[in-house]
Design brief:
By secondary structure, the chain is an all-alpha fold. The chain contains 15 helices and no strands.
Amino acid sequence: MNVLLEPLNFEFMRNAMIMGIFLGILCAVVGSYMIVQQMSMMADMIAHSVMAGLPLAVFLKLPLSVGALVAGVLSAVVLSGIESQSRLKLDAVMALIFSLFLATGTTLVTVLPGADRIDVIHILFGNILGVNQSDLKLTFGITLIIVLGVWLFYKELLFYTFDPIGSQASGMRVRWYYLGIVTAISLTVVASLQTVGVLLLMGMLVAPGMTAYMLVKELHHMMILGSCLGAFASIAGMYLSYYLDIPSGSAIVLVAFGLFLLAFLFSPSHGILTKSGFVKDIKQ
C-alpha cells in the first residue's frame, strides 16, 4: 500500500496524475474519431504545425495556447483548401503543410523579439511534473467542452464519420463538422504541450483508441474504454516514472503501447494469438 501512497505525498505528483486522467480521457475521445476517419497523420501534422503559432503568441503577448490553437486550425484549413482545389494526394499536401509551418515556426523564433525564450525541448517532450493549477483548469475546460460537444452532436458526428458522402447529400454542413473535429484535435494538442509534448502526443492520441478498437465494436464503447485505458496508462506511467526515474511522458506512452500490445496479442476477436486459425495451427 505504501508503494501506491508514497508518490501522492507530493503535490506535483498529485497534479500530474490528475492531468494524466484528463489527458487520457481527452485523447481517447478525440483519437477514436481520428482512427475511424483515418485522420491520424493529420493530427501529427497539426501537432507540429502549432510550432508556428508559439513565437507569434510570445511576440503579441498572448498565451501560448492561443497561438498554438490558431496555428493548428489554420494548418488544417490550408490543407483542406489545397486538397479540394487540386489533384494532389492528401499525404503529399500534409508533408508540404507540415514542413511549411515547422519552418515558419523555427524562423519566427529567431526573428521575432522575445520569441527565443521559448523552450523548444519542453514543447517537444513536455513536462507533466511541472503542471500547475492553471494548467489543470485549462485542460479540464478543454476536456469538458469536447466531451459535451461529442455528447450533443454524437449522432451527426457518427453519420459524418462513417458516411461522409451520404451526410453531405442529406444536407449536413460537413465542412463545419470537419472544422469541429480539426478544432478538437488542435485543442487536444494545446492541452498536451505541457504534459507529453508534441513528439509523444501521437502515442496518447492513437494508442488508447486503437486498443479499444481491438476490444469493442461500437464507437461510443470505443471512446469510453479508450478513456479508461488512457487514464490508467497515465497513472501507471507516473508511478513508473517515480520509481524508475525515467521521463514521465515517455513512461505514459510506453504503458499505453503495452496495453495495445496485449490487446493485439490476446483480443478475443482480433488477437493474433487467440484467432481460431492460429490456435488450430498450434494444435496441429
